[in-house]
Amino acid sequence: MKDRTTARGRARGDELDRSRTTGPGRGGAAEAPTGPAKALPRRRGTRRHPGSQRVPVTLLLPALLGLAFLILPLVGLLVRAPWSGLSEQLTSSAVWDALRLSLICATAATAVSLVLGVPLAWLLARTELPGRRLIRALVTLPLVLPPVVGGVALLLVLGRRGIVGSWLDSVFGITLPFTTTGVVIAEAFVAMPFLVISVEGALRAADPRYEEAAATLGASRLTAFRRVTLPMIAPGIAAGAVLAWARALGEFGATITFAGNFPGRTQTMPLAVYLAMESDPEAAIALSLVLLVVSVAVLVGLRDRWMSTP
Q: What is the CA angle 127-132-134, rounded to 5?
């Protein structure tokens, strides 16, 4: 009896060994050794980017026309530019005053946008504020609002007879329209939404668990925002600040409506271009080239953030 039991155990052990070597469901047949798969021959000239397609002829023509429509005006600006006298045009007193005022006002408008826009972006991204969607829509409204309409709205609020401006004039003697401060306010009004959108997107992409961990370690909400949140969203703040600065530098409609066009006081580069087209076209082209260079520099600086392709 003991010999039969031992024989059955040996038979079961042999079956287990065979199943391990052949694999389940193969009928006991030995598995053929598998070597490295032989690569299929690759056809030359057929490698494409994933998702790329051949351009249909019916779409190629309007696409080329659209590209030419966007590029040819810039090419014309470069071709007709007075390159020989460009240095003289850029060093003239009128052009230099417009350049200096534009740089100062655009920088000041960007600073105002940072001080007011970053907390506003945090409020939209991190809190469950009632009416948050409506607030976001109102914040982004200057993006689609005609700048001239924005200038009229600023006059109705901050003008000498405006809702707030009359109080500022009667109590403090402060007049904002047609001053350099008015230029800064007009530029900040149209530029701040760019910064708010950029910072809000960076805040939504940042992991809030780091802020929660800082709070559990005893950090206050302000300390966590300053020591944890700001370093995480620094690239978004930088991108938004650059966009806001470029938008403020090129602002025209709200500035001329709210601040006027006074040389040395409110005449920025876009206003100088508009005025020079009537009397000195070469100076207008020189100023336009400066604005073009600034725009290209902004796009080059932001290409890794918003213009990269997967």
A: 170
Longest dimension (CA), the chain: 121
Statement: residue 2 has pLDDT above 50: no
CA gap 292, 306 in Å, rounded: 19
DSSP letters spanning 215-239 = HHTT--HHHHIIIIIHHHTHHHHHH
pLDDT tens for each residue of 240-252 = 998 899 899 989 9
With CA atoms as reference, report the closest residue to 124 among 115, 133, 113, 116.
133
Give the total residue count for the chain.
310
Tokens (6 digits) for 88:
């003289």
User: Residue 293: pLDDT above 90?
Assistant: no
Task: Output the six-digit token pair for 96.
Answer: 């230099």
Angle between helices 180-205 and 132-144 (to 10 degrees): 130
* pLDDT at position 10: 57
